[in-house]
């Protein structure tokens, strides 16, 4: 089992940057695909990016491609999301999630979730 705790959210102006962190517990953290999802008020939770257990492969949503970068440090049981050139439409609660398999973008494809961290981008 994996427990996930996100941190790093906050308020930033449009064009600014933030780095989110997701700390995982459990010896099997390195075996999991890790992903970030986000949910804006009144909208469904949507896929943002995922990273293979080894870090060798990543998949980005078109809306964040070129602006966001995911990375992981398995020695620290942590996954990161570097967010640059932030836009007001990036405002959402960001969730970290873990799955046994890679290549999926659906909420139901992920087994473990963090509690979320709020990101607010002002215009």
Write a concise synopsis of the structure shown.
With 123 residues, the chain is mainly β.
Polypeptide structure, described:
By secondary structure, this protein is an all-beta fold. Helix content is 0%, strand content 50%. It has strands spanning 3-7, 10-13, 18-25, 33-39, 46-51, 58-60, 68-73, 78-83, 92-99, 112-113, 117-122. Strand 4 and strand 5 (46-51) form a beta hairpin. The protein is globular.
Question: What is the secondary structure topology, with strand pairs?
Answer:
Layout (H helix, E strand, L loop, with lengths): L2 E5 L2 E4 L4 E8 L7 E7 L6 E6 L6 E3 L7 E6 L4 E6 L8 E8 L12 E2 L3 E6 L1
Parallel strand pairs: 2-11
Antiparallel strand pairs: 1-3, 3-8, 4-5, 4-9, 5-6, 7-8, 9-10, 9-11
């Amino acid at each position: 089992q994996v427990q996930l705790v996100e941190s790093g959210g906050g308020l930033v102006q449009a064009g600014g940057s933030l780095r989110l962190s997701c700390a995982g517990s459990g010896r099997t953290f390195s075996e999991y695909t890790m992903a970030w999802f986000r949910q804006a008020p009144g909208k469904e939770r949507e896929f943002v990016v995922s990273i293979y257990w080894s870090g060798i492969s990543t998949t980005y949503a078109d809306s964040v491609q070129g602006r966001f970068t995911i990375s992981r440090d398995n020695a620290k049981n942590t996954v990161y999301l570097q967010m640059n050139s932030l836009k007001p439409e990036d405002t959402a609660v960001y969730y970290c999630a873990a799955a046994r398999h890679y290549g999926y973008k659906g909420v139901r494809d992920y087994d473990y979730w963090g509690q979320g961290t709020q990101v607010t981008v002002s215009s």
